[in-house]
Amino acid sequence: MSSEKSPGKFQKNTSGKRLSGIIANDYLTLHRRASEGAFVVWIAIIVPAELFNGFENVVYAVPESHAALCAGKGAGRILCEKAEGSGYSTDLCSYARIDIGTAFDGGKDSPTFGLPRPNLLVSNNNNCSLLVKWFDVYHRAWNVPHLVLDIPFCYEDQKESDFRYIMEQFGTLIRTIEEMSGQKFDIEKARESVKLSSEALKEWKRFLSFAAHRPSGITAFDSFVQMAPILTSRGSRQLLDHYRMLADETEEQVKSGIFPVPDEKYRLLWDNIAPWHQLRKMSGRLADLGANITSASYTYCIGALEGRYDPYMFDGGDPLAWLARLQNFSVCPHGLNLRGKAMKEVIAKNAIDGVIFASNRSCKVYSLMQMDQMRHIREELGIPCIMIDVDHADVRKYSEETAFTRLEALLEMIESRRAQ
Ligand code: SF4
After folding, report:
1. What's the angle, vertex CA 294, arms to CA 288 and CA 299, rounded to 5?
2. Which CATH number fits domain 14-188: 3.10.150.10, 3.40.50.2000, 1.25.40.10, 3.40.50.11890?
3. C-alpha 168 – ligand 1 centre gap (Å)
4. Which residue among 316, 366, 372, 420 sits deepest, i.e. has the most Cβ atoms within 10 Å of its Cβ?
C-alpha cells in the first residue's frame, strides 16, 4: 500500500486519498441527480437514509454533514457570520448557522456549492430539538413540507412500545415520499441497502478496533475524517468496499509497524463532536507530546445499540426493524448510565490513560452531563480527566492555548498517577 509517512502527524494513505474522491463524487452526484429531476430529501443524521434507496429516484442530503465539511475546510466562520448577519444568534448550534448561511446565500463559500434545494425535509428530535427548529426555517422560507420523526429519548434498552412507535412513523415517511414523488417503495431494495450498511458498520468497527493495539493503529482524528461517507453513501456497495479497504490497510500498517504516533506515551479518549477546525493542528501538537487521542464517543457509538460498542448486525429480516432498533445509536439521547457504560467499556478495551471532555458551546445536549460523567469516571476508575471548551464548527469559540494548557495538565496527571 502507498503511504506518505509523516510519523506523529496525519498519514495520507490510500484510504485518505480514496475518501476525498468518494466525498467529492457523492456531492457531485447529488447535485447532478437533483438537477435531472430526482426527489431530494434533506435529513438529520439519525434519519435512516437506507430507506431512500428503496425508491427509484430519491436522493438525500445531510445538512449537519455538509456543515462539518465546511468547518473542516475552513469556511465555518464566514458561513456562521452570514447567518448571524441575518439575525441568527451566535448561541445557536454552529452547524445550523453554517447551513443557514450557506442555504440563503446560494451555496457561495461552501466547498460543495451548498446542497440542492429539497422537496422534503425530514428531521428527528432525539438528538436535539434545535434541529427541528432549524429545518423549520427552510419549511417557512421555501414552503417545503417538514416531517419530524418523534424518537423517544432512551435511558435503557429501547422499549417495545417505542420501537413500534418508530416503525409506525417510518410507514408515514414512506407513504409521504410515495405520494409526493409518485414513486413506489420497494422493500427488497431497502433490504439490500440495509445489508450493505450493516456489513459496512462491521468493517467500521474493525477499523476502530486497531485503537486497542499498543501503539494505537489509529487516531480518533482518522475516525472523525473517515466517518463522512456514512452520511453521504449510506447503504451503498461503495461504503462497504471503502471501509473494508480502510480496515485492511490499517491492519497492514499495524503489521508493518507504521503507527500515527509511534512514540505513543499517553492514550486518550475524546468525548463530544470532533473539533472540525482543529483536526490537523490538534493531532499534530498532541503527537509532539507523545499523546494520541485513540478513541472517541462520537465515532464508537456509530452502528451500536444503546450504551454498547459492538455493531448491531442485520439478520436479513425486516430492514425497517433494523433501522428502527438503531434509532438510538448516537450519544445525545442517552442518559448518564448508558453513556458511562459504553465509555467504561472503551476505556478498558483500549487501555485509556485519560479522558478529554470537550464541552461544546454549540451542542448543549452532548455537553449537558459531562461534569457528572467526569466525576463518575474519576471516582470509579481513578482515571485522570479534564474538560476543555470547544465549539465543533465555530473556531471563534475555541482558544488553542487555553485548551493545550489543560491538555498538558492532563498528561502531567497521568504521569503522576503512574509514579504512585
Ligand atoms: S446542537 Fe448538537 S445535536 Fe443539535 S444539531 Fe447541533 S450538533 Fe447536532
Report:
1. 135
2. 3.40.50.11890
3. 25
4. 366
Domain boundaries, the chain: 14-188, 191-419
Q: Is 51 a pocket residue for ligand 1 (Cβ < 6 Å)?
A: no
Q: Which of 43, 64, 297 to mutate to test the pocket of ligand 1 (most atoms within 8 A of CB)?
A: 64
* Cβ–ligand 1 contact at 174 (below 6 Å): no
Q: Give the Å distance between the CA of 392 and the centre of ligand 1.
A: 10
DSSP-based three-state secondary structure for 190: helix
Q: 14 C-alpha to center of ligand 1: Å?
A: 31
Per-residue pLDDT of 75-91, as tens digits, reads 999 999 999 999 999 99
Q: Do domains 14-188 and 191-419 have the same CATH topology?
A: yes
Going by alpha carbons, the residue nearest to atom 4 of ligand 1 is 128
CA distances to 126, 308, 417 from 163, in Å: 14, 18, 45
Specify the CATH number of the domain 191-419. Answer: 3.40.50.11900
Q: Which of 62, 131, 394 to probe ligand 1 with, by most ligand atoms within 8 A of CB?
A: 131
How much is the average pLDDT of 185-209? 98
Task: Report CA(245)–ligand 1 centroid distance (Å).
Answer: 31
Which residues have C-beta within 8 Å of that of residue 74, sequence separation ≥ 6?
277
pLDDT score at 3: 37
Q: How confident is the model at residue 406 (pLDDT cuts 50, 70, 90)?
A: very high
pLDDT in tens, 9-38: 445 578 888 999 999 999 999 999 999 999
DSSP notation for 203-234 = HHHHHHGGGGSSS-S--HHHHHHHTHHHHHST
Q: How far is the CA of 255 from the centre of ligand 1 (A)?
A: 38
Which one is predicted more confidently, 108 or 12? 108
Distance between CA atoms of 186 and 259, rounded to whole angstroms? 45
Q: Is the Cβ atom of 226 under 6 angstroms away from ligand 1?
A: no
| Residue-level pLDDT at 16 | 85
Q: What is the pLDDT of residue 9?
A: 44
Are 381 and 347 in contact by the 8 Å Cβ rule? The answer is yes
Q: Has residue 334 got a pLDDT over 50? A: yes
| pLDDT tens digit sequence for 39-49 | 999 999 999 99
How far apart (Å, rounded) are the C-alpha atoms in residues 148 and 138? 13
Say if ligand 1 is within 6 A of residue 363 CB.
yes
